[in-house]
Every structure is written in C-alpha cells, then in structure tokens.
Design brief:
Chains A, B: It holds the Pfam family Bac_luciferase. Two copies of one chain form a homodimer. The first copy, chain A, is of the alpha/beta class and 455 residues long. Chain A has one domain (10-283, 367-437): Luciferase-like domain (TIM Barrel). Chain A has helices at residues 38-50, 69-74, 82-90, 109-122, 137-140, 151-169, 227-236, 247-260, 285-297, 301-312, 338-351, 355-365, 375-387, 403-418, 431-435, 443-446, and strands spanning 10-15, 55-58, 97-103, 127-132, 177-180, 185-187, 197-198, 203-204, 219-222, 239-242, 272-281, 369-373, 393-396. In chain A, the strands form three sheets. In chain A, strands 1-2-3-4-9-10-11-13 form an eight-stranded parallel β-barrel, surrounded by seven helices. A two-stranded antiparallel ribbon of chain A has the order 5-6. In chain A, helix 4 links the parallel strand 3 and strand 4. In chain A, helix 4 (109-122) packs across helix 6 (151-169) and helix 6 packs parallel to helix 7 (227-236). The longest helix of chain A is centred in the middle third of the chain and has 19 residues, at 151-169. Chain A is globular, with a radius of gyration of 22 Å. Residues 450-455 of chain A have low confidence and may be disordered. At the A-B interface, helix 1, helix 2, helix 3, helix 4 and strand 6 of A face helix 1, helix 2, helix 3, helix 4 and strand 6 of B.
Amino acid sequence: MSTENNRQIKLGAFFMIPGHHVAAWRHPEAEAHSVLDFKFYKKLAQTAERGKFDMVFLADGYAVSKRFPAALEQTVSVRPEPLTLLSALSAVTEHIGLAATVSTTYNEPFHVARKFASLDHLSGGRAAWNVVTSSHDEEALNFNQQVHLLHEKRYDRAEEFLNVVTGLWDSWEDDAFLFDKEAAKFADGSKAHTLNHEGKWFNVRGPLNVARPVQGHPVIVQAGASEPGKELAARTAEVIFTAWQTLEEAQAFYADVKGRLAKYGRSPDSLKIMPGVFPIIGRTVEEAEAKKRQLEELIPVEAGVSLLSALISFDLSGYDVDGPLPELPQLAQVNGGKSRFTLLKDLAEREGLTIRKLYQRIAGARGHREILGTPAQIADQLEEWFVSGAADGFNIMPPYLPGGLDDFVEFVVPELQRRGLFRTEYEGTTLRDRLGLSRPIHPASLQPANIAALS
Amino acid sequence: MSTENNRQIKLGAFFMIPGHHVAAWRHPEAEAHSVLDFKFYKKLAQTAERGKFDMVFLADGYAVSKRFPAALEQTVSVRPEPLTLLSALSAVTEHIGLAATVSTTYNEPFHVARKFASLDHLSGGRAAWNVVTSSHDEEALNFNQQVHLLHEKRYDRAEEFLNVVTGLWDSWEDDAFLFDKEAAKFADGSKAHTLNHEGKWFNVRGPLNVARPVQGHPVIVQAGASEPGKELAARTAEVIFTAWQTLEEAQAFYADVKGRLAKYGRSPDSLKIMPGVFPIIGRTVEEAEAKKRQLEELIPVEAGVSLLSALISFDLSGYDVDGPLPELPQLAQVNGGKSRFTLLKDLAEREGLTIRKLYQRIAGARGHREILGTPAQIADQLEEWFVSGAADGFNIMPPYLPGGLDDFVEFVVPELQRRGLFRTEYEGTTLRDRLGLSRPIHPASLQPANIAALS
C-alpha cells in the first residue's frame, strides 16, 4: 500500500500512567511507584520526542471514585494535574506538542485561556487544549454541586466557554508589543482589544494579561462523538480524538464530521481525526497474544467491573460477572458519555460477551481500538485505517509504560517511516506546523471595521 | 555584628519581569522583549539557585488595567501565569523553592489543592502557595462579577478556602500507597479520607486525586497586614511577605504577629517574616544613586500616576503631579489593599511628597523598603533588620533583570555568607528543610479516633 501525495500519519502519545490497561500497574515491567515522579514522565516525553510523535496527550478527571471501594484499592487514582505536568515537560523537550485535557464544566474561561496561552509561549508554540465536559456526579461533589450538568447544558456551556477562550487569546494583536524603550512604548494600546463578552454562562471583559499565543490559538482538540459533540467539533475542533472499534464505524464518523466542515467555511484538512489505538506489540503474534493474556489475568474483578460501570454510566456491581449485561437504560436517559455507552452496549450484544469478557475487552483500550501483532502487522493496521478514509492519525495508548511506548518507538515508528507514512524529522517549529494546521489570523486583520478600539 | 546560634537569613527572589521598577523595561540592560520567553526565566531561576536563594517568588493578577490607557502603553501588562511558569522552572532547577501567588477569590479549592500538590510532587517538595485575595474591580469583570468582594468577605472566603485546600492535601495518608503488585493492592483504602466539607462558601467532598504532597503541605505564604490578614497569618501562614519602610514599623509588626502564634499552639520559629526589599547596588554609593536616578527619569508620568493610583485604590489622574496628594477617603471606605493605602498616605504626609515624588519613591519598591549602596552597605541594612527583631529574611525585588539579580548573587550573597548570615550549601531536600519549617503531621496520626474511614 502507498499513499497519494505527502499525506502522513499524525501521532499522539497518550500517557496514562503506568499504562492504559487497568492492570498495567501490576505488570512486572510497570513502574507503579512512579505515578507522581517527574523523572519518569521526562523519560517518557523524551522517548516520544525521539519517536517524532506530534504530541503528548493527557486525559483528566476531577474525582477519586468512591463507588467501588475495592476498585479504589486496585487501581491508580492519583496522578499529576495535566497542565502542571505538561508545563514541566515543556522545559525538557524541544519539539513535541503538549496536549492537556481541561474541562469546561468546572473552570473559568479566563484562567483556562491564560494557562494555555502561557504554556504556548513558554513552549515556543506547542500547546493544545483537549476541550471536554465533565460528566460524573462524583466530580460535581468537589465543586459545590450535588449532580453534574445535563448533557445538553454541558455542551451549551462548553461552546460558550470555548468562544470566550478564543476571544481572550485574540486580546492582543500579533504586533501589539513594541518594546520601544526610547519612545516609552511597550505596547500599542490600539492593538489591545476588550472582549466584553456577555453571555448565558459567562461575563468576561478582557483583555487577557498574556500576549497572543505563538500559535495564534493553541490547537483545539475534542473527543465528543455525540450529535452536539460532532457539531461543536465541526465548527471549532482541529483534532478529534475518537473511539471506534471497526473500520466501518470509523469511516462513517470520518465522512460525517469532515462533511460538516464546509458549512463552516472549513477545508477537510483543517481537522485531523485521530482515533485512539491500543497496540500490543510482540516479536511474533504469539508473543503479543501472550502479553495480552498476561494483562487480562492481572485484572482484579472489582476493578474490571467498576471500570466498565464508569464507562457505561451504570453500576454493574450487583450482577454476575459471568452472566450477560443486564437490561440497560435507553440512550436518552444516559447522562454520561453517550457515544461510549452505545459502543460498549453494541459490542456486548454483537459478540454475546459476559460482563467479565466485556471488561477484559475494554480494560486496556477502554472502548478504543485494540491492535495486536508484530511491528509490521501493527503498521499494517494503522496504514489500513489511514489510507481508507478512517483516520488522519492515531492517539497511541501504550498498554504499560515505559515498555509499551519504547516498543512502539523502537519498532513501529521505523516501520511507518520506511513506508513513507511518518516523518523522519520534525517540520517547522510549532505543533500547528507538525499537524499541518494553519495559524488563525487575528480578527482585526480580517475585519478592521468591526474591532472596537481600546477605550 | 553577629547573630546568636545558627539563625540565618532566608531569601526569596521575587521575579517581576523585566524588573520591579515600573520603568525597568526601559533600562538599557533590561530584556524587555523576554517577558514571555522561557529561556530568560530559566536563566534567572538558575542564577537564584546559584545564589542559594530559598525560593523564587511570583506575584499575580487577573486583569489588564484599562483605567489609564497611556499607562497601558507604557508598562508591562502581560506575563506568564505563575503556576505554569514555576512548573516549567521546576524541571530545570534542583533545589530552589517555587512560590506562586494564587487568589482565593476567583478560584476553586479543588483545583488549587491539586495544582500545588502536583507541583510539590514533580519538584520533589519545593512548592509554596502565596495565598491572596483579589481586590480590583477590573479582575471581578473577568469572572462574571461587576464589583469585587468586600474586604471582610474576601478574608472570610480566603480562610475557608485555605481550610479546604489543606484538608484536601490530607486526603491520603503518607503511607496510603502500597504498589503491591502481588496482592493487587495499589492503595490501602482505609488511608484515603473524604473531606466532606460543607461550608459557607464551598461544598467539597474529596478525596483529592493526588497523593499527599512531599512536604505534607506546600509552604503557606501570606502577605496581608490588615487586622484580619494578621490573624489569618498567625493561624495559618508559614511565611509572611510584608511591606515596611522603617525599622520601627517592621519591628512592631514582627512582634505583633509572632506574639499571636502562641494562642494557636505555634512556636515563633514556625512563621518566617520576610519583608520585601528593593536593592540598588553599586560599586560605590554614587554609582548606586546614579542607577536610581536613571530609573526615576525613565518613568513616564502616566505610568507613575496609574501605579500610585492602583496601590492606593484611588484615581489620581485628574490632579497636578507636582502638587500634594488630594484628600483621600477614610481607611474604612478603602476596599483594596488597606495596609498599603495607609503606608503610602503616611509616607506622603511625613515627608511632604508631591504626587510625582511619591510615585518616584514607590515606582521601584512599590511600598516595600528600598536599600541602596555598595554590597557591604546592602548587607549591613539586611543584617540590621535581621538581628534586631524586624525580619527572618527578605524577599529580594531586583530593580531590573537580569542585572539586578546577577549583582545581588555575585556581590551581596558572598558578603552575607562571609558574615555567617547565609547558607553556603542547601540544607535538606525540601523547601521546608531550607526554611526550617517542620512537615505537617497527618491528622490521622494525631487523632486516630476522629478519622472517618473510607466508605
């Protein structure tokens, strides 16, 4: 197989410490004690940079789940806050992008705009924001609420939040700062703009107290695959991180979302679709399969059941693990990750899986695609989706760390490079350069008449 | 002069880029264009670490003031967000403490607890939180409010905020994590504690999703010198950053606050008082005085007036700069920094200063103590306050950067070391070790019967 023109795979290194598999920390090679140790993260980020990954990607959540006390003892519930970690990693890397998940549900847009703008400056244009909504009541309880926002309200708030943040990033024009010591002009005040946002969720005046980011705007990443999620992504996202099990589903989603771009005046290239992939790499297929079995056998039952329960927003702890899924609520009643709910319910029905088999299936990839085999077979599976309209790249979720990332960088990346599917050197200087995304033009350059002068 | 026992001066390096003087950016040596450049901050932090400073200290604010458009053009209004910057600096330093200002007025305790706990882990126990309240209406406008909270309400909220944060830091006992792969026990659930805080300002369940910080609690820094500020500090602060012009004022404050500690069961050593100091260093007194004049002459009038107006929470822009201060409101009507208001009003009256003379006086130190002279004279002035019950250390505010810090490290630090007043090597491993502060014991070790088991 080969690709037309120079289109190349984009790669994210999704760090979940000490690995994406729920039992990763029990793996003999996993550094379970390193979950809060900077040296460990530094090594991982430098490995990913050596592998020419586009970015490091970090998920996030705002609670330690207490619903399953046994599971709490069996899984990793403490990790560094992503922006804190990525800021530290920015100082020990030079090229790799830095994507942090920050929720729009329990934050203030001024703070979020400022932190990502700061990271973008300090890293020389490598910041990306994975825009999510929070959907667990246990998170609400840490922020003065009893229950979390309904699905539609979360998206309504997220959209306004995003508008405020991008507006604040444009507080200063790119050439607003003069540094003119003689004329005593540090800044040109006419190039500082107030936002004066008055909305349903937020009133924010601005301007932001950080200059326009190096990238104009840090790269916007989104993950929602529900109807409002897809529409918000089509309007505003530059990278989508999705979860699909089959080529057909991924192709349908890819066509659907890319097809929505034109109505917002966007080209298909302005949005990169990067499904999550959980790779189990062996020197032989047998070795890879043995690795998989080893991890499955390390899953404690309570941890498996609670992970599955969280993913489908339904408590399965009262049911026989070796029986089928019970009758689940209708999709409309689900006030959690709706697309993940559907994906897992369909998977269990399609393959007739018991609760145990289902949690074993998702205890690694958590609903994302699992691929298994030799480096060449892994590359084949990535290439297939890449060339057949299912993906522009992949967010790689190593089963355990650092081994799972080391293997990918050492064996799979060179294979992709040999096939001409992946870069051998970083292009340009910013994450946008690497992802092939253009730098947003400041609105003042687009419509000078519409810009309110500073007053 | 010499000190009894081994009591030594503690030093903070207060970074305000490109210097504390409002005209610093116009100084010929100032790197005005580097305000958002990580390489510049990295060099500064490494210089401070070479000088064996206890900590880097960063102030903060949440607005670009638009009240004085000319001043906006003449001063630096953009800087990196402090926690983002300190996280990055943690990766390129090994010993120096990292103190960030974060307001309790427009934040959520869960986020703040988590970020400082993360920084403390990633830095190996070097984090400190300067707990402040926000007092400008222009900040309120960026957070959905029209006006900022009244002074008493800000302190009420600050105290509850601090209680929640320290409670969240104690979510996990120090030995809660077992990493026991064989027994499938990552954590001991009985050592995870819910906070279940239900207060006037916040309802926060917990636990925090970060392990107990390396230092137990990151070091608590405060700056308020008003009556509620002093009381909150006596109960909770471990470092106080204050602003005093005269030895007598500083001694009175020192005795006052240290005298309040006993009623909270605290020893005098458990709180370090570190006034801000703005040092102008020359090879001769004449050279230092020339440096001072040079900076004063670089202050644009509008910038000087607006700085003074902001510090006293009163708009002086309509008044003759070569006339006296107008009649100012009574202290009770001031809803800003009350102690700074009193300090500046008294200073102007005592010395009969015009508005211009007053802003020239405060355009550098901003109400803090200015000291000037040769390295030996600078050391004399620090030693005098240190040995006479006015200070445990100082927060050094270089007039311009990097030069002002370079001079301090190269000439003043060795002088202090020769006198036995300052360390020549870092003690211990954490910021607490350097400051001589004990590590907070987890409440479960103090009162086992009072701890709610995880359920």
